[in-house]
Amino acid sequence: MIIYYSAEGNTEWVARRLSTLLVDKHVLSVSQSQEDLENALLSIEPDEPLGICFPVHAWGVPLPVQRVLQMLTKSIEMHTYLYMVCTCGDDCGKTVDHFTRLLSGKQQLSLAASVQMPNTYVNLPFFDVDSPKVVEKKMKKAEERVEMLAQRIKNREFLIDVFEGGMPSFKSGLLRKFFLRFLVKDKYFHVKEDICLHCGKCVTSCPEHNISMNNELPQWKRIDKCTTCMSCYHHCPVRAIRFGWFTRNKGQYLHVK
């Protein structure tokens, strides 16, 4: 079984490519209800490989995946082969250490790998989506890397193969705390009313179901569920959704595959 969390489609592509290469038909999004996720985890045989795929958020594990790991650690059976594959625009810091800590010693991580994918983070100055040329180059390398990882998983190999980048402890420590405290907030989202199409794509694309329509305009629920994954921003067909002033004149990206 493969459980994934995805916003713009990068991680979903990785999960489904692994599913095809591993002939694993059980692929489940963390956006499913908690009951569905709990039942799925309970249905896995102890010797069945379990993969968890997710994008790196602030050089760590995103909150929806943390909830899945909490469910996993409550399981009676320990899975003999648990692997994680994280996607990132550049580097992942100490995400593997964060993931391992969340397992609380109740599960053993067999394989951990990162896959560099097209960048989607536009929430700060000087951060923007990749150019089409860079996207094409990254996707070619990503295809090769996922094929390699699938073979390693088939062989039940034990492997830690991630690109932590420079100053990983600082990024996943102090800098991550800054991001979570000040930037992972849905209060910065607003909509430019004069160009909004009232199409509702922002509502249906939100992995956390944190947006509703109010008087034909999107409204964020302000209940600390937002992960600032930027799915609503990237799915908006007319760029009516803004994140403070940071997204002004920034590009959009959705995985075409």
Report on this structure.
The relative contact order is 0.16. The longest helix is centred in the middle third of the chain and has 23 residues, at 132-154. Helix 1 (10-22) packs parallel to helix 5. Strands 2-1-3-4-5-6 form a six-stranded parallel sheet, sandwiched between helices. Strands 7-10 form a two-stranded antiparallel sheet. The protein has a two-stranded antiparallel sheet with strand order 8-9. The two termini are 21 Å apart. The protein is an alpha/beta fold and 257 residues long. It is built from eight helices and ten strands. It has helices at residues 10-22, 34-43, 63-73, 95-102, 132-154, 168-183, 201-205, 231-235, and strands at 2-4, 27-29, 50-55, 82-88, 109-116, 159-161, 189-191, 211-214, 217-220, 241-243.
Question: How do the strands and helices of this protein lay out in sequence?
Answer:
Elements: E1 2-4, H1 10-22, E2 27-29, H2 34-43, E3 50-55, H3 63-73, E4 82-88, H4 95-102, E5 109-116, H5 132-154, E6 159-161, H6 168-183, E7 189-191, H7 201-205, E8 211-214, E9 217-220, H8 231-235, E10 241-243
Parallel strand pairs: 1-2, 1-3, 3-4, 4-5, 5-6
Antiparallel strand pairs: 7-10, 8-9
Helix pairs in contact: 1-5
Series of H and E elements: EHEHEHEHEHEHEHEEHE
- Strand sequence of the main sheet, in spatial order? 2-1-3-4-5-6
Total discrete domains? 2
**Which fold name is given in CATH as the topology of the largest domain?**
Rossmann fold
Cα-to-Cα separation, first versus last residue? 21 Å
Give start-end ranges of low-pLDDT stretches. none
Q: Tell me the total number of β-strands.
A: 10
Question: What is the number of helical segments per DSSP (H or I, 4+ residues)?
Answer: 8
Class by helix and strand content? alpha/beta
Report Rg.
18 Å
The pLDDT mean sits at 93
